[in-house]
Automatic annotation (TrEMBL):
InterPro entries: Aldolase_TIM (IPR013785), DapA-like (IPR002220). Keywords: Lyase. The lineage of its organism: Bacteria, Pseudomonadati, Pseudomonadota, Alphaproteobacteria, Hyphomicrobiales. Coiled coil: none annotated. One of its GO terms (molecular function) is 4-hydroxy-tetrahydrodipicolinate synthase activity. This is Dihydrodipicolinate synthase family protein. The keyword Lyase applies. Transmembrane segments: none annotated. The keyword Oxidoreductase does not apply.
């Protein structure tokens, strides 16, 4: 499918920028899919005001592919969303693995009704940039692509600005999730997209959970041969936004309103540090992100949106000291939570 075939309202939503939570995986104590809570999570994100969902991505656990859950999890999210709201939603499917696997997943996602694929390049470690571009081009022939610069700590590959120029030149690329958790590498992507002349076609989405609000509100000036091009991140596709989502959407709207202004309120700039502090606990920065998925699960468990912290890998869980850090940030930043919103709607979402 070419991006011109995406529903016009959905294409506009992606291009103008929206909130795309990375959908977690709800499991039972036996590590089986918990359909009731999985549906509740989808309904929660929709009612919070998300512009769509990213399913089958890192936060959903890449291991769903190893246990036969890739199609069932994508189908459940799509069916739940379609029955819960009639407003346009951008449905993005995670794509992973070597080329043959990624192409198969792209076809599965399209068959279910997803609009685009977020392409993980973790399986391409050790490949040349030429080989990775060939991989991306082949997958893009199947489905509109959202690029994914994943941070190396959780399996990402370091890529040059020239790579991102070549990637953005692929006609069926519609967005890039920029998540290297690194200012220099973030600028490499922006420079690459600008050099490809693709800033009008390729929407920039932050995945930098360590600088969410600054990415969303600040201008980026890119210089080439004495000419300045100013650009902005349009939206976010974030694991961090899988929790406290209603509050995150309010923050997103504030950041969006602050763009293109001569000044940004100091309180909004300062809020970035508080959100990053929360992320340090949720994503287990102290232990090199080992507990990043379980940390998000812990917030959802406390709210009743999950039964427990279980991951498909029994070795994945909270790190020593992580629970105490989560206790600290939930206490110190209680006003950033959406506990009241969840409590008021939980029974409806679980029905």
């Amino acid at each position: 499918m070419h991006h011109s075939q995406i529903n016009a309202d959905v294409r506009k939503l992606i291009a103008e920028g929206t909130v795309l939570p990375a959908h977690p995986l709800a499991l039972t104590a036996e590590r089986q899919l918990d359909k009731q809570h999985q549906r509740a999570l989808t309904r929660y994100y929709i009612d919070a005001g998300s512009g769509g969902l990213a399913v089958g991505v890192h936060t959903t656990q890449f291991a769903i592919r190893d246990v036969g859950l890739y199609r069932p999890v994508l189908e459940l999210a799509a069916e739940t969303a379609a029955s819960w709201t009639k407003r346009p939603l951008a449905m993005v499917a995670g794509l992973a693995g070597p080329t043959t696997q990624a192409v198969t997943e792209a076809r599965t996602a399209l068959d279910i009704g997803y609009h685009a694929g977020l392409l993980s390049l973790a399986a391409m470690k050790g490949a040349s940039e030429d080989e990775i571009i060939a991989h991306c081009t082949t997958v893009a022939a199947e489905i509109p692509l959202v690029g994914f610069y994943l941070q190396p700590a959780v399996g990402g590959v370091i890529l040059s600005s020239r790579f991102w120029q070549r990637f953005a030149a692929i006609d069926n690329v519609i967005a890039i999730k920029i998540a290297p958790f690194n200012r220099y590498r973030t600028l490499d992507v922006l420079r690459g997209v600008a050099a490809a002349g693709a800033l009008d076609r390729v929407a920039l989405y932050t995945g930098n959970d360590d600088h969410i609000l600054l990415d969303l509100m600040l201008p980026f000036d890119l210089r080439d041969n004495g000419v300045t091009t100013r650009t902005y991140f349009k939206g976010g596709l974030l694991g961090h936004w899988s929790v406290w989502t209603a509050s995150a959407i309010k923050q997103f709207e504030r950041c969006k309103a602050a763009r293109h202004k001569d000044s940004v309120p100091a309180d909004l700039l300062a809020l970035d540090a508080r959100v990053t502090d929360c992320n340090s606990a949720f994503f287990d920065v102290a232990n090199n992100f080992h507990g990043c998925i379980a940390g998000c699960h812990e917030i959802l468990r406390r709210q009743g949106l999950m039964r427990g912290l279980w991951c498909l890998d029994p070795n994945e869980g909270l790190s020593p000291g992580q629970k105490e850090e989560i206790d600290r940030v939930t206490r110190e930043h209680a006003d950033l939570s959406d506990d009241a919103f969840v409590a008021a709607n939980l029974s409806k979402w679980l029905a």
